[in-house]
Every structure is written in structure tokens, then in C-alpha cells.
Amino acid sequence: xxxxxxxxxxxxxxxxxxxxxxxxxxxxxxxxxxxxxxxxxxxxxxxxxxxxxxxxxxxxxxxxxxxxxxxxxxxxxxxxxxxxxxxxxxxxxxxxxxxxxxxxxxxxxxxxxxxxxxxxxxxxxxxxxxxxxxxxxxxxxxxxxxxxxxxxxxxxxxxxxxxxxxxxxxxxxxxxxxxxxxxxxxxxxxxxxx
Length: 194
Known about the structure:
By secondary structure, the chain is an alpha+beta fold. Helices cover about 15% and strands about 20% of the residues. The chain has four helices and seven strands, in the order ααβαββββββα. A four-stranded antiparallel beta sheet has the order 1-2-7-6, with no helix packed on it. A three-stranded antiparallel beta sheet has the order 3-4-5, with no helix packed on it.
């Protein structure tokens, strides 16, 4: 085995004694006498012990101002939250949509699967009973949907970023339902779909 470059058991034991932090006075290369101490050792115990600095990282450290949060820490759409507003949120459902052809369904040529990574659009169905289409105020941002009516208020954080200018909304007065279709931003499609 030595000729093949593979270490023998004796070489591994010698290497283990060189790298261990504990010094054995008797020079014995046999098994550890204190099995519990040897079992607790791992690759992290090789070398000198790490230094513990008490420095606070600058990412979460406060600046000189009296701000509690930075703008990066505040979620999008938090300006629409109003705890004093008594309007309840309406029932809603978020559905992810794919555009499939027969080559996708039967042959699998475009490598699409049922995961959310392959979805093209997001459909948000919002039930608004006893509401007119003229009463609905809808504001859509990249990751937030804000809907307000005289009876309901909905601030919805979207699960994926969307193109806010490319969406469309349709109100069905006979069902009392608003359907908002939003095309999803897929910045990594050129990598994922190859």
C-alpha cells in the first residue's frame, strides 16, 4: 500500500499525535485512555484555539442617529399598515400560472416542471362581496399589493417579485370577485431554463 501513496495505520496515528492539542507524556500511540475526551474531538479541534473577539459587526450595529431601523430592514408595504383601521381583510387566493403547450405537456421539450420556478404569472383572486368596481382602489408594487374598498382593506406581501406595470385586473360583479394577473420577474431564467 505504501507504493500506491496510501498511508498506513501507523502513519495516520503519528499524524494524529502531531496534530492533537493534548500532549501524552507516556508517548503511547495506542487508543485513547479517556474515551469520552477523544470522542468529543473533531476537525475543528486541529490547530490553536480560535480567538474570541468581542467586536460587534457593523451590519447590525446602530448608527449615530436615533433611528431604530434602517430603510433596508423595513419591509416594502409597511407604510400601508394602519392598526387603527377597522376594515377586515377580504378572502383571497394566490395562484401561480404557467403557459404550457403540447410540447411541454406530452414531450417535455422545454424542461418545465410544476415548481414555482417555471411559473410565468401570478393570479390573485380576491373576494369582495357587496362591492362595486368603482369603489376598488388597487396599488401594485414589485413585492406588495394594496387593495382598499369602503368595506375591506388588504395589504398582501407577494411571494415572488412581479412586473408592477405589466399586470391586469378584472372585476366580476356577478361573483363579487377581483382577479389580478401579475407577470413574474424571472431574473435567472437565462440560467435556469437552459
